[in-house]
Amino acid sequence: MTRETASAKIEPEFSLSNYEVRDEDLPEFRDMKFEKINQLELDHPGASDEAYRVRRDHIASLAKNFRETHVITDVEYTDEEQKVWQIVATRLEELQAKRASEFYLDAKSKLGISTERIPQLSEMNKRLGELSNFRLAPIEGLVETRAFLSWLSYRTMLCTQYIRHPSRPEYTPEPDIVHEAIGHIPNFTNRDFADFSQFIGHGARIATDQQLEELGRLYWFTVEYGLVEENGELKAYGAGLLSSFGELENAFTDNVQRRPFDLEQVINTTYDYSDMQPVLYVIPSYNYLKETTRKYIENFDKMK
Ligand SMILES: [Fe+2]
């Protein structure tokens, strides 16, 4: 998610509970001014691989075109890229069979996400539209927190399309199509989760800087690292867990304190994104998360 540059000005008058956002309601994507978000950091495994950088830039340019055309361009992934996907997706699927939430596993198959090939944002976007009126918009890099979260208020998630470097299939320091498609996208087929995401987005548009920081923590401990109790068992639904071998395994060991979700506690708990997570929060249901967040965000409105 997040980081420097980029500010998309988004008009704030949009009701909290308008779940039927139409295309006509969306701000113009071409008004999104993102600058220098396509940088590859020096610690990226592909940083010194010129061919990888050129390829990543190409895929990023397709995403950038979206802002003018409003059409998601499919990426013709190379055999090498497909191979990276197959390796990661297969290994994650094995781990997820035991650890991922039932809902998530079902959603993955509804979206047609398989271990065979990299799914296109266009096809997942179409299915999401039918299932929960949620949308995907390609983006070429990391967007700063407020702008990124604000788009969720339009039931839209900004997603990268390029894939991690083949030298480290298990690792990426930035979001890539594995993190987006395997981690994030299936959850948006859940109406409660989609509505909750919309609330986070609404909150981000009106939050003070302090509230934005709190929202960032809520996002981190739910969307990225959340656990849910399902039929008496703890399961993972957070994208950071579901798209990482190490985190998914670690989440269920004694290294981690698994606490019942408590909003006050969550928004006041700091985290370190560069290390394994020592504390995780368990929600009793997606609906609980949605309704708790609604009350929290409604308070933002009152404080304006
Ligand atoms: Fe993420």
How would you portray this structure in words?
The protein has 304 residues and is of the alpha/beta class. Helix content is 46%, strand content 8%. The protein is built from twelve helices and six strands. It has helices at 50-69, 79-99, 102-110, 121-132, 145-150, 177-184, 191-206, 209-224, 239-242, 245-250, 263-267, 286-303; strands at residues 135-138, 156-159, 227-230, 233-236, 257-260, 279-283. A four-stranded mixed beta sheet has the order 4-3-6-5. Strands 1-2 form a two-stranded parallel sheet. Helix 5 (145-150) links the parallel strand 1 (135-138) and strand 2 (156-159). The longest helix has 21 residues, at 79-99. It is globular, with a radius of gyration of 18 Å. The two termini are 26 Å apart. Fe (ii) ion binds next to helix 6.
Give the helix/strand layout.
Layout: H1 50-69, H2 79-99, H3 102-110, H4 121-132, E1 135-138, H5 145-150, E2 156-159, H6 177-184, H7 191-206, H8 209-224, E3 227-230, E4 233-236, H9 239-242, H10 245-250, E5 257-260, H11 263-267, E6 279-283, H12 286-303
Parallel strand pairs: 1-2, 3-6, 5-6
Antiparallel strand pairs: 3-4
Helix pairs in contact: 7-8, 7-12
Provide key terms for this protein.
4-stranded mixed β-sheet; 46% helix; disordered N terminus; 304 residues; 6 strands; globular; binds fe (ii) ion; alpha/beta; 8% strand
Low-confidence stretches: 1-10
Question: Strand sequence of the main sheet, in spatial order?
Answer: 4-3-6-5
Q: List the ions, cofactors and other small molecules found in this model.
A: fe (ii) ion
Task: Indicate the percent of residues in helices.
Answer: 40-55%
What's the total helix number? 12
Quantity of strands, as a count: 6
Mean pLDDT: 91
The major pleated sheet works out as:
4 strands, mixed
Based on Cα principal axes, name the global outline.
globular
